[in-house]
Task: structure prediction
Amino acid sequence: MTSTIEPAAPALPTLTRAAVLHGAGDLRTTDLDVPTLGPTDVLIQVAAVGVCGSDMHYYAHGRNGTNVLRQPTVLGHEAAGTVIAAGAAADVAVGTAVAVEPAVGCGTCPTCREGNYNVCLTGTCFGSPPTHGVMTQYLRVPARAVHPLPDSIDPVSGSMIEPLAVAVWAVQRAQVGLGHRVLVTGAGPIGLLVAQVAKAAGAAEVVVTDINDDRLAVAAELGATGISNTATASLPETPVYDRVLDCTGVPGVVWAAIRTVRPHGRVTVVGQAAPTVDGLPLGYLQRYEIDLVTAFRYAHAFPAAIALAATGIIDINRIITGRFPLDQAAQAVQAPVTDPRHLKVLVLPQS
Ligand SMILES: [Zn+2]
Ligand SMILES: [Zn+2]
Result:
């Protein structure tokens, strides 16, 4: 006789602990209800969340650029974990390890339909108030926002895929090509990833600048062909680089770097820029037909980021310098400020 009794599905969690930002300097760990899954949603048990510069801005100032925190919001946008439940129409199997793409656009406007969902006019991003972020034990997201991870990337390291996608997109926007001489300004987590991706894209020379010698040492370890501490050394006086990727967002750094670019070269602003700046050497750009372009988040970059990390072409783990349990999220977002030797700090919501 065959039994018709099915084994009971494991009960899903109903509460999730989350790091909720209430105001500048006020990050609290709180239990929230796990949201109901829609047919195209998945529920993720979050393994790790990377702390980004934007999280540090929200924590320190209650704002990031022009976006202001006006209501309690879960922090964070760099997550990976394991799918533990999926809606009936979600094409992701339970048990799949995934990286989460935090901003996938509205999906229906002309910009999204052209494929440029990163610059959708109405799109939201996890962790950009008022949209809740990912620093939580259990996270509901649309299935279209997750990207499966191969076995060679564990879900904790998988939280590095989001910043790596930023770097992949930046190098694509920069049009780095075979044999290029590339200058990367800023050796924070993004600069260190950009330098590696630029090399993977065929750059013959990748010089990284910063004012922090510890960071520059990591850049050299990760394959930069040259490093320069711009607190003590100046940039070349003659135009030598084909491409500059600015990962500082500091206007003076960008303007100085522009003058190192060869005629018909290209400068890409990757670091978060101030709303308006003075001093742009516009005449110089025009005189030598140097292109000045920008990069914002990424579009279609997660698959390449995953492939580059999976094969080891890009070292994501060397950039991780700290791991904190969820109830120490406030310490985690301050760690890179209090100890400048930190690069990427992770929050582990399951610990
Ligand atoms: Zn980020
Ligand atoms: Zn859209």
